Every structure is written in structure tokens, then in C-alpha cells.
């Protein structure tokens, strides 16, 4: 499979998952068949895992809270951080887990219905996992930009309708 | 007082009115119009460039600069031009102007006087003709044709030349056709220009927006540097139209003459905008190249869609315009543009405003979002199929 093409298709879909096969084919000068096949392979190989929307939750009636939690752990022989990460990401309320360089090890994002639910998760579930040595919880107050999208973007169309 | 109008300069009175004005007014009165009529990037100037300007204001760079522009900016421009095999001395052969627009005016006023002829390949950008006329010259159209991908041919040029011809204007990549001239194409034009001892004003403002291939400047060809004024600017490549920064590269005697006019009429380009241009040239390549890649994808999308709709479209290899042939609809460019606007709410620019040989074509700018291009193509498709089915009946 053509790696350069896979990268281009993934890039376009990452930016706008609603692009049709036909549009992508035209934009990249390929046939729709080639693009359909490329997308199929990207999905099959789990390069593309899901198509989802970037949502500004602040604009919807919801009290849900998001917390970013720095987690310090003792790495374990042979499996390093992976087995602890696995124990954490299995929880439904955990939305993302990443291994970080720097002052802590795992960055965990948790979404709950309210602050109490998230606090309970941290104290009862997360902090009690074996080899988790410390947690620092940051509640998210406002999202300004996420995944390349500015949320309160005021850069609207400012051009004149017709110019030479 | 006698009739005011009669007392104005006849040169100004005789300037052709802007061909797009009527469409502009019409489109502006309507709701929900998708405009493919915009001749500027749809990106806002990259943030690091805007930020550099704000920093320069904090630092108090609010004064005049030297007439020719900030010396460090002229140095960056000279460095930048080497990528097109152009070597100019930043302290004597480069100047910063108020957009490519001022540069066009300066070049005309410096090269021509009443009685001279300026050769302008058409269809092309709208300001060469009035600038030549304001300088007192007469204008000779040199036609370019869809069959040649709207490239200028040596034969067409040769046919148009008279003993009074003095200046040839080149605008490649071209607005409105997207045509690009290869080195071989330019070599044939250069041969004619040298044989007839013509000056060349080469407007290369779209040079960066050359797809599959590298832009060639005619000034880089043997024997051409001494007779060529190269014009470019920040507007298109760096999404900086509102900043009004362009520049000229030319041999010293020509540059010194243009600088004389600039010094009396303009003084200098805006200082803070020059600071922003400096940042763009020093650190803007990555974002610029991303914008170009994005135009390229939209270019392919619009060309494929127009051809599918039944409006044959040669491949525009530069700038951000497609120039489809609308003759299959049986309408003139103006009828097509006006009816498309009124019936489907899509604004395009009729080709005839760019010169007689633009008749039968319309300019569609693809510097707009993929979603809007697709929506516009659906509307144009509906418009065209209705016309064609009526024609069959
Ligand atoms: C071919 C060409 N030259 C020059 C200009 C003027 O650009 P600016 O004065 O913004 O540099 C334009 C703008 O549309 C153009 O299309």
C-alpha cells in the first residue's frame, strides 16, 4: 500500500471526517476506487480507529466535568508502565491515557457527571491501584482550542465578495 | 462653474470603468451567496506574522523607513529571490512598495511616455491597462488562447509588435487563467523581446503558487535581467493582502528611477507592515507551504468537478483560479455570471473583464473552503444541466 497516499488520506479525514470518497479522490487526483481501498486499509489496520466530532460541550446543557490527572507510578519489571496503564484505561470514565516524560508518568483524562463523581473515581479507583504512588487532579475550566480547532473563533469571512 | 466633469483630465475620463463593479453591487445585495469571485487567500495571515507586527508596535517602530524600505527586509527579499535564480543587490536593486499594485504603476510610469505602446497578453489582471494609460501609453492586447493553456506564444507576440512597442507585461502564474510559462516557453518570448529591444514588466506575485513544478522568472534567462522589472509581493503567498507590501527587483538604473517616483509620491511602505513581512520571509516558509498544499488540493477538486459538470477546464498550473469554458451553455460570460448569481447564488467573475479573449470563460477562485466549493459545484451543476436540457428541447 502506498504510504504517502495513506498519510494524505488520513490527514484529510483527520481534518474533516465528512469528506466523501469522491471528494478525496478529486483532491488527491486519484480514482474513487483507490481512495475507498486506502480508507478500507486504514480502518482495517486500525490507523483510523473512529470518526467523531469535535464538540464544544460548553454550548450544550451539561454539567459534565473533565479532569486531567497526573499520575506517578512505580514501573514494573518487564512490562514497564504498560500494565498499569492498562489497569487505568479499562475504566469507562477514563477518556485518555498517555505516558509522559517529565515530573509524572501517566496523564489521565477523566470525564464525570459532576466533581464528586470524578473525586470519588480518583480516591477510590485510581489512587488505590497497586504501584500508583501519587496523583494530582486538575479540573478543566474552559477549553480554548482542542485538536487544532479554536472554540471561540472570531476569524470569520472578512473578505469582500468580489475582488480582481 | 462650467461642467465639472468636462474639466477633469481626459486620461482619467477615458479610463475603462471596473468590469467587476456591477457584479460586486449585485452580489452584495443578495443573501446566502457563495463567492468564487474573491482574488485573495482565504487564510488569515499566520499568527506569528501578526504577532511580529504587534511586537514591532510595542517597540515603537512607528516611523518612516528609508524610501527603498527596511535594509534588512531588502536583504531578505534578495535572499528569497535566489530560489528563482535571481541575483539582485539588496542595497541598489531592490525596493519595497505598497503592494504589487504600486510596483505596477511605478514600472509603467518609469518606462513609458505618450506615444509608446505597451503589449499586454490578455486575458490578464486588470490593472496593467489603466496604469499604462495613466502613463500616457497606448495598449496593445496580445491574445492568449485556451488551446495553448493560455500561455503566451512567440507568434502571437510577434504579430502584435509595432515599431512603437516598448514594454511587454508578463503575468505568470496568471490571474485569471492560472496559466504558467515553462522555461522553454519563456525562452521563446525572451528571444522576441531581445530582438525587438523590449522592456519586460514581469508580475510574479503568484510565483509561490506554482503546482507540480518550479516557477521560472524570465529575468533569469540570458540577456533578460537588464531589460526586466520583476514585481512580486507578500499578498498571495503569505496571505498578507491587507498589509500592502510588495517589492521590485530591477537593475540599478531602472530601480533608481522608480525609487525617485516612490520617494515623492509614497515616501515608504508602512513600517509595521514591513516588520511583519520581515518575519514572514524569515520564518514563514512552513505555514506558506501548508497553504499552498491546501490550494493544490482544492485546485484539483474544482477542476475535476467543473469538467464533470460539462464546463471544460484546462489545468490551471498556478495561482488560485480555475478558468472554465462556459461556451457549451450558449451564454456570454456576463450572462452566465449574472444568471448564475441570480438563479443559484454563486458569484464568479466573467472572463471578458480580463480582456476580450476572456469572453466565453469565467474565473472561479478556489481560495474558499472545500465545503463551499462543493456546494458551489452542485449549484453550478444544476444551473448548467438546466441550460443544456433547455438547449436540447
Ligand atoms: C496578478 C496580480 N498582480 C498584482 C496584484 C496586486 O496585489 P497587491 O497590490 O496586493 O500586492 C494582484 C492582486 O490581485 C494580482 O492578481
UniProtKB/TrEMBL annotation, chain A:
Gene Ontology cellular component? cytosol
Q: Which GO terms describe its molecular function?
A: sequence-specific DNA binding
Could you list this entry's UniProt keywords, alphabetically sorted. Answer: DNA-binding
DNA-binding: is it a keyword of this entry?
yes
Q: Where is the Transcription regulator AsnC/Lrp ligand binding domain?
A: 70-143
Per the UniProt entry, what are the Gene Ontology biological process annotations, in alphabetical order?
response to amino acid
Descriptive protein name: DNA-binding Lrp family transcriptional regulator
TrEMBL record, chain B:
Q: Does the keyword Cell inner membrane apply?
A: no
GO biological process entries: amino acid metabolic process
Specify the superkingdom.
Bacteria
Q: Which family is this sequence assigned to?
A: Belongs to the class-I pyridoxal-phosphate-dependent aminotransferase family.
**A GO molecular-function descriptor:** pyridoxal phosphate binding
Domain (Aminotransferase class I/classII large): give its ranges.
33-380
User: InterPro entries, per this entry?
Assistant: Aminotransferase_I/II_large, AspAT/PAT-like, NHTrfase_class1_PyrdxlP-BS, PyrdxlP-dep_Trfase, PyrdxlP-dep_Trfase_major, PyrdxlP-dep_Trfase_small
Task: Show which residues constitute the signal peptide.
Answer: none
Q: Which cofactor does it need?
A: pyridoxal 5'-phosphate
Q: Which CDD domains match?
A: AAT_like
Under which name does UniProt file this protein?
Aminotransferase
Q: Which UniProt keywords apply?
A: Aminotransferase, Pyridoxal phosphate, Transferase
- Enzyme Commission code(s) on record: 2.6.1.-
Question: Which SUPFAM superfamilies does this one have?
Answer: PLP-dependent transferases
Amino acid at each position: 500500500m502506498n504510504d504517502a497516499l495513506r498519510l494524505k488520506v488520513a490527514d484529510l479525514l483527520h481534518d474533516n471526517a465528512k469528506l466523501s470518497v469522491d471528494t478525496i479522490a478529486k483532491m488527491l487526483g486519484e480514482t474513487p476506487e483507490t481512495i475507498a481501498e486506502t480508507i478500507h486499509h486504514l480502518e482495517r489496520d486500525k490507523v483510523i480507529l473512529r470518526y467523531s466530532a469535535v464538540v464544544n460541550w460548553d454550548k450544550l446543557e451539561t454539567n459534565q466535568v473533565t479532569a486531567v490527572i497526573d499520575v506517578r507510578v512505580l514501573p514494573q519489571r518487564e512490562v514497564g508502565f504498560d500494565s498499569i496503564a492498562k489497569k487505568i484505561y479499562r475504566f469507562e470514565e477514563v477518556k485518555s491515557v498517555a505516558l509522559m516524560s517529565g515530573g509524572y508518568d501517566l496523564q489521565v483524562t477523566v470525564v464525570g457527571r459532576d466533581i464528586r463523581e470524578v473525586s470519588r473515581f480518583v480516591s477510590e479507583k485510581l489512587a488505590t491501584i497497586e504501584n500508583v504512588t501519587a496523583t494530582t487532579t486538575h479540573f478543566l475550566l474552559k477549553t480554548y482550542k482542542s485538536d487544532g480547532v479554536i472554540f471561540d473563533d472570531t476569524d470569520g469571512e472578512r473578505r469582500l465578495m468580489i475582488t480582481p | 462653474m462650467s461642467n465639472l466633469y468636462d474639466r477633469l483630465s481626459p486620461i482619467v475620463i477615458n479610463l475603462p470603468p471596473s468590469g467587476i463593479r456591477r457584479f460586486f453591487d449585485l452580489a452584495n445585495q443578495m443573501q446566502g451567496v457563495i463567492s468564487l469571485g474573491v482574488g485573495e487567500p482565504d487564510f488569515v495571515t499566520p499568527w506569528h506574522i501578526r504577532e511580529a507586527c504587534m511586537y514591532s508596535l510595542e517597540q515603537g517602530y512607528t516611523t518612516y523607513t528609508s524610501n527603498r524600505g527596511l535594509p534588512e527586509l531588502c536583504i531578505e527579499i534578495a535572499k528569497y529571490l535566489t530560489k528563482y535564480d535571481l541575483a539582485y543587490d539588496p542595497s541598489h536593486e531592490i525596493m519595497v512598495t505598497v503592494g504589487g499594485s504600486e510596483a505596477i504603476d511605478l514600472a509603467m510610469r518609469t518606462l513609458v511616455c505618450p506615444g509608446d505602446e505597451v503589449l499586454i497578453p490578455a486575458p490578464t489582471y486588470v490593472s496593467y491597462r489603466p496604469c499604462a494609460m495613466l502613463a500616457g501609453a497606448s495598449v496593445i492586447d496580445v491574445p492568449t488562447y485556451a488551446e495553448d493553456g493560455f500561455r503566451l506564444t512567440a507568434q502571437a507576440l510577434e504579430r502584435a509588435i509595432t515599431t512603437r512597442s516598448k514594454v511587454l507585461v508578463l503575468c505568470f502564474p496568471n490571474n485569471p487563467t492560472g496559466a504558467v510559462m515553462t522555461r522553454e516557453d519563456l525562452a521563446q518570448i525572451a528571444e522576441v523581446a531581445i530582438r525587438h529591444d523590449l522592456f519586460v514588466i514581469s508580475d510574479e506575485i503568484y510565483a509561490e503558487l506554482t503546482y507540480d513544478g518550479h516557477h521560472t522568472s524570465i529575468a533569469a534567462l540570458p540577456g533578460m535581467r537588464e531589460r526586466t522589472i520583476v514585481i512580486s509581493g507578500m499578498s498571495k503567498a503569505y496571505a498578507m493582502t491587507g498589509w500592502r507590501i510588495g517589492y521590485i527587483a530591477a537593475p540599478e538604473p531602472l530601480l533608481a528611477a522608480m525609487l525617485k517616483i516612490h520617494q515623492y509620491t509614497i515616501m515608504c511602505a508602512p513600517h509595521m507592515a514591513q516588520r511583519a513581512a520581515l518575519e514572514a520571509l524569515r520564518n514563514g516558509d512552513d505555514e506558506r507551504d501548508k497553504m499552498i498544499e491546501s490550494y493544490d488540493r482544492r485546485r484539483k477538486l474544482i477542476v475535476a468537478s467543473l469538467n464533470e459538470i460539462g464546463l471544460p477546464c484546462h489545468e490551471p498550473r498556478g495561482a488560485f483560479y480555475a478558468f472554465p469554458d462556459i461556451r457549451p451553455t450558449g451564454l456570454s460570460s456576463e450572462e452566465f455570471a449574472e444568471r448564475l448569481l441570480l438563479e443559484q447564488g454563486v458569484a464568479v467573475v466573467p472572463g471578458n473583464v480580463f480582456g476580450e479573449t476572456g469572453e466565453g470563460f469565467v474565473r472561479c477562485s478556489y481560495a474558499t473552503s472545500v465545503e463551499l466549493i462543493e456546494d458551489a459545484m452542485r449549484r453550478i451543476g444544476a444551473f448548467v444541466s438546466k441550460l443544456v436540457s433547455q438547449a436540447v428541447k
